[in-house]
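Batch job 17 of 40 flagged for manual review because the log was empty.
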Amino acid sequence: MSKFTRDFNPKAIKIIFPSALFLFLFFLLLPLDSILLCQPSPPLIAKVSVQVDGQPATEDIQGLIPFKEGDPFSPERITNSIKQIYKTGLFSDIQVLREGEQQILLTFLLTSRLLTRRIIFQGKENISPERLKGGLFSLREGSFFSEEKLAKAVGELKDVLEEEGYFYPEIKASPQKNTRTSSVDILFEIQSARRFVIKKISFSGEVILDEAELKKKVRSREGRVYIPSLFEEDISRLKEVYSAKDYRRAEIELKERRFDEKQDYVFLSLNVIPHQKIEIDVQGAQVPLSLLKPIWEAEVFEEWGLTEGKAKIINYMREKGYLFSSVKFFIERVDNTMRVVYQVTPGDKLKIEDISFEGLSYFTPAQLKSELGIGEKVAFLSWVSGARLFELPSEIEMLYKTKGFSQTKVDLNFARRRKSVKALFYINEGIQEKTDKISFEGAQLASPQTLREQISSFEGGPFFNPDIQKDIERLENFYLNQGVRGTEIFARIEKVSENLFSIFFTIREGKKVKVESIIVTGNVATRKKTVLRELRIKEGDYAFYDRIRESKSRLERLGIFTKVSIEEIPLSEEKENLVISLREGERNYASLGVGFETRSEPRTFEVWNIPMRLRGTAEVIRNNILGSAAQLSLVGQASLQEKRAVLSWEQPYFFGIPMQTYLNAFWEREERKSFSYEREGISLTSIKPIAKNILFSTTFRWTRTTLLNLQIEESEVDREHSPFSASSLSGSIIWDRRDDLFNTEKGTFFSFVLEQAYPLFEAKSNYLKSFIKYQHFIPIFSRVIFSATSRLGLGGGKVSIPIHERFFAGGSNSFRGTRFDDLGPKDPDSQRPVGGEGLLLFNFELTFPLVSSIRDLSGALFYDKGSVFDVPKHLKFAALQDAVGFGIRYRTPLGPVRFEIGWNLNVPSEKRKPLAFITIGNIF
């Protein structure tokens, strides 16, 4: 027993058992290892080919395929690549063919999405193409084409034709595809349609009104062709007739429409439900019922309707100056009539003399008025309208909230002074809530200081909860502009004390993404290098979002594309493609304009008796020449006083420098007061933005001018019928901060031009000219604007400046106390203006509303001061002339139409006569 025990020593077992287990596992796994070693290597991609619509793909499209020769084959990667290609929106179908087992040949077959280029109609009778296109929703010019959309478009076109009275139309749709441009032209051929004549219109229901009179109110008459769209308008017209009779909720609908297809007749039946009669009676004040009628035209709770009407009446009365008007209301019912009565007690009409604030600590009165847009007081005018005055308390409270005062309360009181009041705003500011600490958690790609610079909140500043969401958006935009995608930002607010808060921004940063490839599509005529030239990002750059947006804006500014989109297509967490999709606009344009002009300015108030003759303009433009975004145009102009022809070449670059460049060749003939002239020449102008709102331009010009009909004494350079050549180089700086180029209400404009004429190319010119202009527009308060314009021109040289290059003034666009060109030096014999080498002009204007209901109509008071001097050294402020006047303005998209009357104050009173001017556009 003991021997047995010795033979099986426990220590020996601890050594033998692990060794045996290892040998057992080794022999067990040996066959599996052999199998793995003998298995063939995974298949590899030997070649990738891409075809688009059966043709080899361009290099850009091939860049969408994320495979290279030698990459391992993976079905999952192919599936992901198909999804990425679909995301570009460029293809309607994608197929991938595989050949081989170990050496894989992949073929991508892509089918382009066709763009609808043109939609053409034939046999459309008298319906305009615009009306037919307006009824197509599934398919429009510039949208993507598909057979399914085409079928829907046919149905929509049938609906439009039926609305216009063409029933049962037969339409043949013929798409004409152009695979080279990936576009399609669609021809809709309307082959037949039937028309029906209205045989009878009948009424049913509670008609109440005379049927014969109702039929006279509609354009769809018995015996005329039935047009459903017109009949719908007639139904609306009949509802207005009932509304005018106080049946404000009357319902009129087409009850029956019966066609007699044998005789092409249609019988129409209208059902009328007048509902109750609603009379609106406003007592005690003249209030337009148009304010109240819309309230009672719909089914509303009567208490709400009464309250809403009261609010509108009080607001209207306050606008008219009745600040303390009151309104009582009630409803009376008699049979089927509901009478809504508003009893108005207007009170006295009062003028707002002054506005004052009490309780201010955070703002000064001037600062608060500026924040509220309340200007300084102007004589004879109110500060603000009465209606706005009562809105100010809530505006002030909201303003304080943005500054951290969440508990601010504002009360409005008045101090009366006979026919005027002083508005007193009592402001209880409360305690300001402030931001104690701002911290950023999880930020690795940017320092806390950099992130603080991106947000509006700051430590020690006001705390306003809605601003935090804006700060999150600013931070997200910052990361996008750094090329980071996938960033998530959250904000947590902790209350430190009663009025102190800390803000913690938690940032889960995404990955910095690089642009792998830039694919340009849709450019048919435009060269790819023209597109790439405008991009502010290139392959290999980080995907800076602000540069991508700027690239899009620059492409749009070229003016040759009707649509520009830039899509980011992710390839991985750190790579993406940019797909630039373009839609080119029309390349050929032609226009013709016709207007009227008078040979001379109006000299009497009977402007309708002044002879007027035609003035014409014609223009032909060829855009995007040679695919370079250049433009060639020919403009012709003809009128009584001038004729002009200009051939212009415009391009966005000047020898590779991004400067808008214009090369012009021109001929013109113009009649002036002292002379006429013919001029021909060429000019080269380049324009370059140098800062926000600031442009620099330079122009080289050569001209050859011949004076005709010279009505002043000939001088050394002003010889009649003797050509005068001039070559000059000028530079100008323009600083424009106006809110609107044509109808300015606020902002400033400054320009400085320096021109040096040299005796080059056999030219006789040798002089220097400068011209400065400054304009300032100040909104005093709503629709009341003060503007000031000043102009200074100086010139001189070794020889006298020729008359056609001198400064002139006088007329509606400069000095409204004299007629056109009449200000300044005169020829001693003919008393015709000769212009001068010095000019100083000031124009001051105040425009104000005339009729509150016509917002585009305004009145104006003006004061002009200035003169023209023969030489700059004679320029004296005391020698300036003065003119005053008034006018009426009507706002149009091209600037205000101005009718003005002015008087020259330097003319003796007995000889002082008013001058009338009619012009379009602001004073220059």
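Reviewer: the log was empty due to a logging misconfiguration, but the result itself is present. The two ends are 129 Å apart (CA to CA). Unflagging and moving on to job 18.
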